[in-house]
């Protein structure tokens, strides 16, 4: 089936977004694209009049298609506009641009920004067919591998140290201040508190996916995730305590691959060490945030996690956060003592501030808006994990665009 839908109709049909969208200024280009889109195995298609600006506005508010064609003609700053488009699209999109300029320099710059192809007008059906066929093949497993969102794990050295608060706050901060699509996922199926934090109804979808990986398909996220906002989605469960949950470690890779093809960031409230998902999860992370409080028990458990990481070949370098500083007052470890105990520096210190955290919780969003010391620390953490470590000198925009390649 290959129906043509107007933007309004597609919006109404969300969340099943069009798998192919094209924005073309002129009738001739639209006709060529329509003819070819009808011949290729796209599901739902949307071909409409518009410039790249129209595409940016549309995709800022709607789900991205798998393949997108945009018209650069008339654009004075095509590269800047392609950068803006990259910011609003989901990572898994293949972009075919077209325009009037027959310029190898422009072509190279576009490709360097992650654009799949650039066609020079007038568009003929033959030209469009060849390019879209390549784009369709490019959306297969092989190419998507390079265009995945960043996976950030938040792990509490032990219970009660504030890992969930930090995971929720960081996910919210990345979505709001950095304007990136984020999926916050709670892998503790029975005792997780992410859904509770955001006052959301937990779904059974996550358990189903982890117990029966064959159910993970492109519609899974739409069925199972709850939307806190257009940019922040939450995947969390609250399975009954008297049932045995059996998440399969093998389900993790397909689940994360699906999430990472749709979101710029996947923030995981990590399962406890000892859970069957813990080690497979650790190996896939791009960033790990290890949270502790200044207690002897959390110091010991942080050291044990760091030792486990050192033995785990695929694990990344963790960011160590000391949270709830000042909660106990007496008997609390000094941060220096804590550093000596774990044999490395603390990267970020967060004070105990019941008032700020309670206010953020009451707002139902863990939105700190960088206010107060807790909010500022969460904002810093969001920058650390979303920009990547300092050893990566490329500016943020370049790395985000690398998702498309
Ligand atoms: N910096 C902080 N200041 C005040 N309260 C905090 C702080 N960090 C966490 N909390 C509170 O501590 C409790 C435990 O936090 P939580 O995130 O559930 O821990 P975990 O997920 O590690 O078990 C929650 O009530 C949370 O609101
Ligand atoms: Mg927790």
Write the layout of secondary structure elements.
Blueprint: H1 7-13, E1 20-24, H2 27-39, E2 45-49, H3 52-61, E3 67-71, H4 78-88, E4 94-99, H5 104-112, E5 117-120, H6 125-138, H7 141-144, E6 150-156, H8 163-177, E7 182-186, H9 194-197, H10 205-211, H11 220-224, E8 226-227, E9 232-235, H12 249-262, E10 265-269, H13 278-284, E11 287-292, H14 296-311, E12 318-325, H15 335-342, E13 348-351, H16 354-362, H17 372-387, H18 396-401
Parallel strand pairs: 1-2, 1-3, 3-4, 4-5, 6-10, 6-11, 7-9, 7-10, 11-12, 12-13
Antiparallel strand pairs: 8-9
The structure holds adenosine-5'-diphosphate and magnesium ion (MG).
Structural overview:
It is a single chain. With 405 residues, the chain is of the alpha/beta class. The chain folds into two domains: 7-145, 3-Layer(aba) Sandwich (Rossmann fold), CATH 3.40.50; 149-404, P-loop containing nucleotide triphosphate hydrolases (Rossmann fold, 3-Layer(aba) Sandwich), CATH 3.40.50.300. 43% of the residues lie in helices and 16% in strands. It has 18 helices and 13 strands. Strands 8-9-7-10-6-11-12-13 form an eight-stranded mixed β-sheet, sandwiched between helices. The protein is elongated. The two termini are 29 Å apart. Residues 1-15, 140-146 and 388-395 have low confidence and may be disordered. Bound molecules: adenosine-5'-diphosphate and magnesium ion. The site of adenosine-5'-diphosphate has 17 residues, from helix 8, strand 12 and helix 16.
